[in-house]
Amino acid sequence: xxxxxxxxxxxxxxxxxxxxxxxxxxxxxxxxxxxxxxxxxxxxxxxxxxxxxxxxxxxxxxxxxxxxxxxxxxxxxxxxxxxxxxxxxxxxxxxxxxxxxxxxxxxxxxxxxxxxxxxxxxxxxxxxxxxxxxxxxxxxxxxxxxxxxxxxxxxxxxxxxxxxxxxxxxxxxxxxxxxxxxxxxxxxxxxxxxxxxxxxxxxxxxxxxxxxxxxxxxxxxxxxxxxxxxxxxxxxxxxxxxxxxxxxxxxxxxxxxxxxxxxxxxxxxxxxxxxxxxxxxxxxxxxxxxxxxxxxxxxxxxxxxxxxxxxxxxxxxxxxxxxxxxxxxxxxxxxxxxxxxxxxxxxxxxxxxxxxxxxxxxxxxxxxxxxxxxxxxxxxxxxxxxxxxxxxxxxxxxxxxxxxxxxxxxxxxxxxxxxxxxxxxxxxxxxxxxxxxxxxxxxxxxxxxxxxxxxxxxxxxxxxxxxxxxxxxxxxxxxxxxxxxxxxxxxxxxxxxxxxxxxxxxxxxxxxxxxxxxxxxxxxxxxxxxxxxxxxxxxxxxxxxxxxxxxxxxxxxxxxxxxxxxxxxxxxxxxxxxxxxxxxxxxxxxxxxxxxxxxxxxx
Length: 603
Known about the structure:
Blueprint: H1 3-15, H2 17-30, H3 42-49, H4 54-62, E1 68-73, H5 88-97, E2 102-108, H6 114-117, H7 126-141, E3 148-152, H8 158-168, E4 174-176, H9 188-199, H10 205-215, H11 227-237, H12 254-266, H13 279-282, H14 285-298, H15 304-314, H16 321-328, H17 345-351, H18 353-363, E5 372-373, E6 376-377, E7 384-388, E8 394-398, E9 422-427, E10 430-435, E11 445-453, H19 456-464, E12 472-476, H20 481-484, H21 493-501, E13 506-510, E14 523-528, E15 545-549, E16 554-557, H22 584-589
Parallel strand pairs: 1-2, 1-3, 3-4, 11-12, 12-13, 13-14
Antiparallel strand pairs: 5-6, 7-8, 9-10, 10-14, 11-15, 15-16
Helix pairs in contact: 5-12, 7-8, 8-15, 9-10, 9-21, 11-14
């Protein structure tokens, strides 16, 4: 085990001793003996059974060894990634009926697509949709008649929201069931080129739409390595879904078999069995550290510098950006998947996928392997890959030991980078996250005068008016959780990339977020404290000289007298329309980004 991995883990354990202890006591007190449904009245039970089939009613009434499993789904057919979930509840019911158990569709949760709302007003609801999903999942599980849960979710805020709630019901087992990525469309490089040409006015709407539809073209997760696919990586490396199940396409013959296997697997983990394993005992400090390591090693989404903190806190674990930064110093970058490389997630899977990544990290002493997983004790279960055996059933076998595409997956002894893909930068502007996995080394340090904006559309207007044709640090303030819900700012990426490719030194500094697919332009994001909370970002002026240094880990205004300026508080404009007014309370309650941007209470 790498000593720094041990030190960071020990630090998290010590910091979390009280809160984790309280959490474990809480879930122990919530566990009951026997079927959960027997703890409620006959009237309650009648409501529970009313819509079930006669066979399901018989099982639930008479078999005290039978489990009743909750299905919580984020299905809708506007999200390509979630469209396959339409048939999953029936697949799950069938698989459980074969072995004498029951599943009930306990509830649905909202699932918005950041790809649709990107750059639009609705994006201001995106981050807090995570907390709405957590609340919705809690409502689904609150009936207190379930022995475990199967969670159907893939995309950006959906998996974190489902997991946050599952951990608050940590006395029950839970398994995530993915649906897989869509097959590859046009190359990501071609897609990016057309976007940049459109931003520069070289192609029109029709050409852009044709390019986008050739990329996003069928059911399944989008194939770039953004937040959705980072979610899948996390659920696998944290042992919360079946080994090798993350990146198998929806129409692959293995997919329905893996769904059935996950459904049947959870029945072996309930409190009705000798191998009772609630999710609150699967997710511990070591599991969280493994998640951070996986994120860094694969160049995953910066959104998880927020989500992992929120997830950990729901299990009584206190994670800090400094923990992530210290792990980034020792975790090598082993994957190059767009936007950190040319190839997509299907190429990642063909090259060796998660089994390769996890085995390499473990061999380098960079993973805790003696952990609980839904497959049992030990992360070694995940060094294998699923396949169809001679009986047409899903089994697991040892995966190949070599990368099948060294442009996509590198071994730990010869990584793409010697350190992870994410940095913590800090200085007189506060703390921020910098994703470096997709940024060339010669752009890790940018020093230039600031241009200050309070709206991303104003940045694009300035770009179109040639007002940014210079070395520039674009400062976009008033984009934090308390200001406007912290929308993603991926809409800026093509324009800023064009400026960078024109030869200018360009960087973005913001208290907002970037998309999980962003990364070409050096950026200090999630700046804390945010401008609406009196953060120093509020008093930056046009022309202030700013230095962003990913090597030294610094973010600072160099202008003389900056520290002596009077503190300011940015007053965010009133937000009405597209439901934003309904989220006023969320914005008022939200913690800072480095505390998970959580707007719901748990104590």
